[in-house]
C-alpha cells in the first residue's frame, strides 16, 4: 500500500521491488502466460465490438445512478432485503458495524471485496468494534495474516511464493507445512471450514447490482463466496454505486469479457445471483437478514465529470495491471494505494486524495498497453496524465517542469538552446556520436545507457540540399514532421526518409516553423504549454496544401493524431482546423507500405540479412499499426526474425526514463536480451526515442546489436 511520501523515497522503495528476484520472476512468468491465455480466450470473438457495447452500457448506467439506485432499492426491499446508501467510507463502515451490533454478531466471514478494502472495513470492525473478521478468499486470507493489502485486484497474493505461504501456514497451524500448492490449499480449507460454521455474519462485495430485480451478482473462482452468503444468518453486500446496471442482460454482457480479461478463462468457476432474503436455518425466524450497502465516496460526482466519468466503465478485471510493464517490474504494493495498476492510479486520486496519488500518477510510462486491453475501453493513460496535470495545478509546478514548458513553447528559443547544446557538449563528445560520459548531475542511476550527442547539422539546415526536385504532377504532396529528435539528434533518419521516396512522384515540403510535437510536455503534466505547442505546429503546416503530414516518429504521430484532437477538438476556434491536421498525419511505415505501395521490385536484391524488430508502443497501440513495418522488411528482402515480446515497451517513455531510471533500465535490458536471443545482429524500429534507448543500452552493455530506424534500411536498399 503506497502512502504519501516524496518522490525520492518512492523511487527508493521501487528499487527494493526491482531487487526482489522472486517478485520479478513471478511477474515475468505471469505476464507472458497471461497474454497467451487471454488471446486464446477471446479467439473467434469480436473483442472490440464487445468492448464498445460494454462501454456504451456502462456510460448509460453512470448517467442514471440515482435513478437506478432508487429502482434497485424498491425492488430489493420488496424481496426482503434492506438497502443503504453511504456517502463515504466512514459511513459505510459505520452502517455495517451497526448492523453487526444490532444483530449481535461476534464473528464475521468475508469474501473478497475491493470496496471493503477501499473503506478499510476490517480495521473498523476489528479495531473499533472488537469483532472477529476472517477473510475466506485464499489470497485475501493469506495477506490478512501477513497484515498486507492486495497486490492485485483479482490475485491479491500474486507477489508471494509457495515457500512464503508454507512458512506462514506453519506459524498459523503450529505444524510444519510443505510447499506443495495443493496441500497448502487443503490446509487453508481445513482451517477456514470452522469459521464458516461459526460465523454470525457474512460480508461480500458485488460485481453487479441489477436494478430491475434488486439482485446482485458475484463472480468468483472459489466456493467461499457462496458459503459466506448462505451459511451465516446475516449477509451484508458492500458495493460501489458504479456496480448498478439496469438489467440482467447488461451483466451477462460484461460476463463475456470479465473472466477472459482477468485470467484468460471463458467463464469463472462460480457466478452467483442473489435476490432478496431467503431461508436460513441459522436465523431465529428461519429467514436470512440481507443488507445491501452502496458506497458513494465520490462516485456520483465522478459520474458527472465530462472527462473522468468513463472510469465507471471499469469491471475490476485487473487486466490493466496484467499488461503494464511498470507493474510487472515493481508489483502492486508500489503501483497503487489500495486499487492497483492503471485504474488504481486514477481511483486513488478520487477515492483517497492527492497525497496518496501524486507519486503514483507519475509512474506511468504511457505505453498504452492498458488502454488497448481495457474491457471498458477506458483511456487509462490519458486520464492518468490528466490527473497529473490537475495535481500540478493544485500543488504547483516543479521548477524544471516550468522551465522546460516556457522554453519549448517558444520555438526559436528552444531551437537556439539545442544549437547551444551542440557546442556545450564538446568536452564529453566521443567520435562515435555518443557522449563519453554523463555529467555528474545525471549519475549514477542514469548511466545505464549511452546518450547521443546533438548533431553537428540539424535536418532543417540540410533541407535546402536534400530536398528533391519538384514533380510537375505529383501523386502525393507530403509535408515532413521531423520532431525535435529527428531534426537535431538523428537528422540522418529524416534524410533517409527523403531518399526512400525519390522517383515516386512525391513532392516533399518541410515547414520551418515546426517544433517539438509537445509530447514531453504532456508527459510532465504541462497542459497549457503542450496546447500552445500544438497550435504552433498546426499553424506551421496549414500553409503547405499537403495530402499527408508524414512523421518518422511513432510517438509524434500518435500525439499529433490523437492528443491534438483531445486538446483542441472542442475549441470552436480550432476544432475544424485540428481535425483536418490530424486526419493528414501518418507514420512512415504506413505511408510507404499502404499509401505509396512500394513492392519488392523497388529494392535491390538482398542476401536476406537477418533483422529483428521492436514495435514502438505508440505505433502498435497508439496508431494500431502492426503489419506495415513487417511487410516493408519482407519487401526489402530482409530475413525478419521475430523476437520475444516485440510489442512490450523498451522503457524509454521520454521523460519517464529520466524520472524512473531503474525501471527504464530493467525494461531496456529485457528488450536487448530478447533481441539477442532472436539471433539477428540488427534491430529495426520506427521511433527515434526507441532508437536512442535501445542503441544506447546496446552500446553500454557492449552488445553486438546494431539499432536503426526502419527508414534508414529502406533507403539503403532502394533501387
Structure description:
By secondary structure, this protein is an alpha/beta fold. The strands form 4 sheets. Strands 1-10-7-4-2-3 form a 6-stranded parallel β-sheet, sandwiched between helices. A 4-stranded mixed β-sheet has the order 8-5-6-9. Strands 12-11-13-14 form a 4-stranded parallel β-sheet. Helix 29 (588-595) packs across helix 31 and helix 33 crosses helix 34 (688-701). The relative contact order is 0.09.
Individual helix count = 35
Strand content: 5-15%
Structural class from helices and strands?
A: alpha/beta
The major beta sheet can be summarized as: 6 strands, parallel
- General shape: elongated
Tell me how many strands there are: 18
Uncertain residue ranges: none
Helix content: 40-55%
Tell me the Rg in angstroms. 28 Å
Strand line-up across the major sheet:
1-10-7-4-2-3
- Average pLDDT level: 93
Distance between the termini: 59 Å
Quick structural summary:
By secondary structure, the protein is α/β, with parallel strands linked by helices. The protein is built from 35 helices and 18 strands.
Secondary-structure map with pairings?
Layout: H1 7-18, H2 21-41, H3 47-62, H4 65-78, E1 82-86, H5 89-102, E2 107-110, H6 114-119, H7 121-128, E3 132-135, H8 138-145, H9 162-173, H10 181-198, E4 201-204, E5 208-210, E6 215-220, H11 224-230, E7 234-240, E8 244-245, H12 248-263, E9 270-275, E10 289-295, H13 299-303, H14 319-322, H15 325-330, H16 341-352, H17 354-357, H18 369-373, H19 380-395, H20 399-408, H21 411-424, H22 459-466, E11 476-481, H23 485-488, H24 491-500, E12 506-509, H25 519-524, H26 527-542, E13 548-551, H27 554-568, H28 575-584, E14 585-587, H29 588-595, E15 610-613, H30 617-620, H31 628-635, E16 639-640, H32 656-659, H33 661-677, E17 682-685, H34 688-701, E18 706-709, H35 710-717
Parallel strand pairs: 1-10, 2-3, 2-4, 4-7, 5-8, 7-10, 11-12, 11-13, 13-14, 15-16, 15-17, 17-18
Antiparallel strand pairs: 5-6, 6-9
Helix pairs in contact: 2-12, 3-12, 9-10, 16-19, 24-35, 26-27, 27-28, 29-31, 33-34
